């Protein structure tokens, strides 16, 4: 049975077994033995994950053709293969004791997958994903660089990020037009940010959506004139602030914003 990669699903099937094994081995699974592979495709990564005796593997696959292929080639995996959209899953209900996430993530929804992981951060202790290299760089980048942005701040607030290795275009069918990379997210010790987290998200988005402006001008555009004294962050641009400084900035905004305008 042949599974044709589908452009609308962002499918680029990994064909290099050595890369697949390296990805599978990158998952430590030392805090949780339950693992969910997102986008199993034709099972190239699945094969090596099933060989691991320290984990229990589940799969999420939205493509019926890929599901049929996996049932045929990995019958022992079929009872734990979920046919459906990972982005619509209630991970708390399906995996009440927690779950690690791994996969060759479809490029067209990779950022949404990471936001999903972030939503269930208290139940996802670790994630390993192969994505477009530019997305991996953006997630792992530190403050002070042009690639540091919204996704960097949100994920680094709750996860330690490691850029593991780069993957060339030639190991996929069809080959993508860009390089890929594998990153690992490990849940850090931060349970809560210590500020209004809804407002934190608004502040981060507001300043990065106009990242060429100073923080003062971006905040004014998003929230109006907040008044108050000059803040040390005002003349700066958002890419220089780390997570702790964004928390501080959020507290400053919260102190000047009417409570009914914080959501």
From TrEMBL:
Localization per record: Cytoplasm
A Pfam family matched in the record: RrnaAD
Known catalytic reactions: adenosine(1518)/adenosine(1519) in 16S rRNA + 4 S-adenosyl-L-methionine = N(6)-dimethyladenosine(1518)/N(6)-dimethyladenosine(1519) in 16S rRNA + 4 S-adenosyl-L-homocysteine + 4 H(+)
Stretches assigned to the Ribosomal RNA adenine methylase transferase N-terminal domain: 19-189
EC number: 2.1.1.182
Binding site for S-adenosyl-L-methionine: 12, 14, 39, 61, 85, 104
MF annotations from Gene Ontology: 16S rRNA (adenine(1518)-N(6)/adenine(1519)-N(6))-dimethyltransferase activity
SMART domains on file: rADc
UniProt-listed InterPro entries: KsgA/Erm, rRNA_Ade_diMease-like_C, rRNA_Ade_methylase_Trfase_N, rRNA_adenine_dimethylase, SAM-dependent_MTases_sf
Record's keyword terms, sorted: Cytoplasm, Methyltransferase, RNA-binding, rRNA processing, S-adenosyl-L-methionine, Transferase
Main location, first listed in the record: cytoplasm
Keyword S-adenosyl-L-methionine in annotation: yes
Function: Specifically dimethylates two adjacent adenosines (A1518 and A1519) in the loop of a conserved hairpin near the 3'-end of 16S rRNA in the 30S particle. May play a critical role in biogenesis of 30S subunits.
Family to which the UniProt record says this protein belongs: Belongs to the class I-like SAM-binding methyltransferase superfamily. rRNA adenine N(6)-methyltransferase family. RsmA subfamily.
NCBIfam families assigned: ksgA
PANTHER family per UniProt: DIMETHYLADENOSINE TRANSFERASE (PTHR11727), DIMETHYLADENOSINE TRANSFERASE-RELATED (PTHR11727:SF7)
Record protein name field: Ribosomal RNA small subunit methyltransferase A
